[in-house]
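It would be a great kindness if you could assist me with a short task in structural biology. The matter concerns a single protein, recorded as an amino acid sequence and a row of backbone structure tokens. Kindly check, if you would, that the fold set down in the tokens agrees with what the sequence suggests. Thank you for your consideration; the sequence and its tokens are set out here:
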Amino acid sequence: MKKTSIIILLAFTIQSFAQELNKNLQSAFAKSYEYEYAYNYDDAIKSIQQFSNATSYEVNLRLGWLNYLKGEHTQSVAYYKKAITSNPSSIEPRLGIANPLSYIGNWEEITNQYLAIVKLDSKNYTANYRLALIYYNSKKSAKAITYINSLSFLYPFDYEVNLLSAKINIALGSISNAKNALNKCLLYNPSSSEAIDLYNKL
């Protein structure tokens, strides 16, 4: 057999194997979704577990989610970290890992993941908002204001952004800015008891 023919045959074999693997993986994911919808997380995990390896981003991302749903938070973190390692520029697993980390109580790692997201995507709503909230709750309003201000420029009429902005500005003693944010809250939701109470206390 000529060398060219061998190369063609080898390429065809590899392609056929890859197609079969993709079909098997798709079938496994389909079963996994069915089990998840039935709240059968054990079988949902087992359906795709065999495809997990250090570089299988999609599988590890899903296993991170399923283990979180099952309440296996340490295992969930491990799978999300595998997904992050295999694709460091991805944002999905960094958002996902915050869920099990919050149950474990590892707020330092959560903060680091959100900071990494902002580095990748400076306008990311979730990361900026949660960093502002974490720093505010940690009595670090001087840090919190940076992240909430980033969102205020992008989402000037967002209720949650304005409410948190008001709280942070109150903590910093910026009453005028706090009133401005609360006025926007009350335009968005005139019956907001929280915004009304905050405003009346100023």
The domain at 123-202 is CATH 1.25.40.10 (Serine Threonine Protein Phosphatase 5, Tetratricopeptide repeat). Confidence is low (pLDDT under 50) at residues 5-14. The CA atoms of residues 30 and 47 lie 9 Å apart. The radius of gyration is 24 Å.
